[in-house]
Amino acid sequence: SMQRRLNRMLSASHDHKLLALMDVGGFDPKEVTVTVKDRKVKVLAEHKEEHTTARGKTYNYKNIMKEISLPPGVSEDEVTYSL
């Protein structure tokens, strides 16, 4: 489940070593994407807001992107993550 504890965000499941910890405060879980490809874990968090005011539309956009290389001996299918 995406709602598991943040302090286990990216870990290798065989020995539960923590690979990375990211602060994604201010982002909704559905705004966070994690992909594992070419021995790299890529974390992308994107938040977009649009407000209509008397003066027109205002936009708020923020994102975080982080790429972590897998350590030797850890296979891509062992990677788990939680928010």
UniProtKB/TrEMBL annotation:
<keyword id="KW-0966">Cell projection</keyword>
<keyword id="KW-0282">Flagellum</keyword>
<feature type="domain" description="SHSP">
    <location>
        <begin position="1"/>
        <end position="83"/>
    </location>
</feature>
<dbReference type="InterPro" id="IPR008978">
    <property type="entry name" value="HSP20-like_chaperone"/>
</dbReference>
<keyword id="KW-0744">Spermatogenesis</keyword>
<dbReference type="GO" id="GO:0099513">
    <property type="term" value="C:polymeric cytoskeletal fiber"/>
</dbReference>
<dbReference type="GO" id="GO:0007283">
    <property type="term" value="P:spermatogenesis"/>
</dbReference>
<dbReference type="Pfam" id="PF00011">
    <property type="entry name" value="HSP20"/>
</dbReference>
<keyword id="KW-0221">Differentiation</keyword>
<dbReference type="InterPro" id="IPR002068">
    <property type="entry name" value="A-crystallin/Hsp20_dom"/>
</dbReference>
<protein>
    <recommendedName>
        <fullName>Outer dense fiber protein 1</fullName>
    </recommendedName>
</protein>
<dbReference type="GO" id="GO:0031514">
    <property type="term" value="C:motile cilium"/>
</dbReference>
<dbReference type="GO" id="GO:0005813">
    <property type="term" value="C:centrosome"/>
</dbReference>
<dbReference type="GO" id="GO:0030154">
    <property type="term" value="P:cell differentiation"/>
</dbReference>
<dbReference type="InterPro" id="IPR037389">
    <property type="entry name" value="ODFP"/>
</dbReference>
<comment type="similarity">
    <text>Belongs to the small heat shock protein (HSP20) family.</text>
</comment>
<keyword id="KW-0217">Developmental protein</keyword>
<keyword id="KW-0969">Cilium</keyword>
<comment type="function">
    <text>Component of the outer dense fibers (ODF) of spermatozoa. ODF are filamentous structures located on the outside of the axoneme in the midpiece and principal piece of the mammalian sperm tail and may help to maintain the passive elastic structures and elastic recoil of the sperm tail.</text>
</comment>
